[in-house]
Amino acid sequence: MDGIFLHTGWRSSGTWLWEKLRNLPGHHGFYEPLHEFLPSMSATTMATLSPCAWASRHPLISKPYFIEYLPLHNGQGVAGAKPSFSFDGYFDQPGEDLHAYIASLCAATNGAKPVIKFARSQGRLPWLAATFPDYLHVALIRQPWAQFRSGWRCMAEDNNPYFLAAPCLVLERNLANPMVAALVAALALPIQPAPGACLIRRLKFWIRKARLLPAATLYRAHTALWLLNALAALPAATLVLDGDADPTATAAVFGLSYDRTSRPSAAPAAMPPNLHARDITAAHDTALAAIAPALTPSLCARIDPWITAAEARAAIDLATPTRTAVAPTWRRAAWGLQAQIARWA
Fold it and tell me: How many domains, the chain?
């Protein structure tokens, strides 16, 4: 194994695991190489940005997030990085420029094994796994309600709507993808093509709009991206980890220990207003029906535990009745049947 590619979603508990792997002897960390601001990030920011500098809700880390990029700084940002790597072509076959950029990071470790933590790669995991086959590709997946709830908390309590806005931007920038278009239409998302629009301007647009959209709409957008990520990442990853699992067990997979004191305390979180458990279930049902042709029985079986856990947890958090335990099981079985029928047709 030449190194580790850690493929995470936003708010999926990936930073603490990367920090552990980054500090292994003979390893060299790179944090979020597809970040849209990395191409223009100043050397000062790279040398200083840490969890204490913003309301990150991340554990303390041994050194700033981006400090390993400093030798690659070209006076403006990281050499080879492009803003378009972040959201454009998110589910498509990347070009040679992205290949060359990731390869350059793998080579810039002074002989150590790279540990690269992505937050914008799960849709491209099949390509990354095929292009860099000698690396361990770890997909860290958290159940969608917990991931969304963490993003909502960042907006409600920290005035940071980025993690609710970003899924909308991913969908907007990839509307030419048939699966994306099908989900946007089925979920009635207020997302329209914006051809030629500047990516950073559109990000700022969605950050403003996220504050105004109903929570149910934001959850539907989150669900669309979550499912598309899962469909791409689950079959391609070398190892799949549950972001909601006991972190002690997750760390033990790599022979690491877990220091519970390094994690922020889990204080009660603000819940989205006017959101009900039925909205969560409806978003899942609608999205799954829209992508039924792509759902094999094996994928249904792998996705089901996260979806079921999300609905059960949302029912508790939102204090509304949930469906009986029998209904989700029957429904998931129907997905597999729909997928089989679509393949036979």
Answer: 2
Burial track 276-314 (b if 16+ CB lie within 10 A, e otherwise): bbbbbbbbbebbbebbbebbbeebbebbbebbbbbbbbb
Query: Which of residues 260, 275, 290 is at a domain's end?
Result: 275
CA 129 to chain CA mean position, Å: 17
Residue located via tokens 């979920």: 187
CATH of the domain at 184: 3.40.50
- 271 & 283 share domain: no
Question: In this structure, are 285 and 318 located in the same domain?
Answer: yes
Q: Are 148 and 222 in contact (CB under 8 A)?
A: yes
Residues 123, 229 contacting (CB under 8 angstroms): yes
Q: How far apart are alpha carbons 345 and 339 in whole angstroms?
A: 10
Q: Is the pTM of this model over 0.85?
A: yes
Query: Could you read off the pLDDT of 277-335 as tens digits, one per residue?
Result: 999 999 999 999 999 999 999 999 999 999 999 999 999 999 854 433 333 443 444 44
Report the C-alpha gap between 52 and 332 in whole angstroms: 42
What's the pLDDT tens digit per position in 273-290? Answer: 999 999 999 999 999 999
* Domain C-terminal end among 215, 247, 275: 275
Residue 105 lies in domain: 4-275
Alpha-carbon gap, residue 101 to 83, rounded angstroms: 12
Helix 277-290 and helix 326-344: axis angle, to 10°?
20
